[in-house]
Design brief:
two-stranded antiparallel ribbon; 5 helices; 4 strands; 2 domains; alpha+beta; 16% strand
Length: 172
């Protein structure tokens, strides 16, 4: 797609046009990442080439504007890595954040469907919500169990002080 077509799509239907713009842009990002990773253009013969291309693979991604289909580059010798989405992830990071925030606020996995539908995504499953929550639990556990390294210049403590009455007298 070229720029005038993208603009025309957006003017006709804003949501569909935005999906097309996002799809086009993310495909361009992945092509640039592929170029950076193998250090050669398609069909280019150089000594710096790290891998050979193996076409593309269609990959769906749920975004705030709905489900889009991306063209993920494939390589023969090494796996393709991208910052567009996490490995095995089918949900955009902003949706993951919304689901995680809902989870932290105590919203049930079933009710998260209603929260996500406000973003225009109608079919996120309860199992997907559970997977996102599990990822969040793992990251929190990792954070809490990490070693404290280096010097700590300031240490703030918080405590509660209660007077206890024992045998008719308050004790400190």
């Amino acid at each position: 797609m070229n720029t005038p077509e993208l603009i025309e799509d957006y003017l006709i239907d804003r949501n569909e046009g935005m999906k097309n713009v996002i799809t086009w842009f993310l495909n361009q990002v992945m092509q640039q990442e592929a170029l950076n990773q193998i250090q050669a253009l398609p069909y280019e013969r150089t000594n710096q080439r790290k891998a050979r291309r193996n076409g593309i693979r269609k990959r769906s991604l749920k975004t705030l504007h709905g489900k889009i289909i991306l063209d993920k580059p494939q390589f023969w010798e090494v796996p393709f890595r991208t910052q567009v989405f996490d490995r095995y992830s089918r949900v955009e990071k902003s949706l993951r954040i919304a689901v995680a925030e809902s989870y932290l606020q105590g919203v049930s996995t079933r009710k998260v469907q209603e929260v996500v539908s406000k973003f225009g995504l109608e079919n996120i499953s309860a199992s997907e919500v559970s997977r996102i929550a599990k990822d969040l639990d793992e990251k929190v556990k990792e954070f809490l169990e990490r070693p404290i390294e280096g010097e700590i210049d300031y240490l703030f403590l918080d405590a509660s002080y209660f007077k206890v009455r024992s045998q008719g007298r308050y004790k400190n």
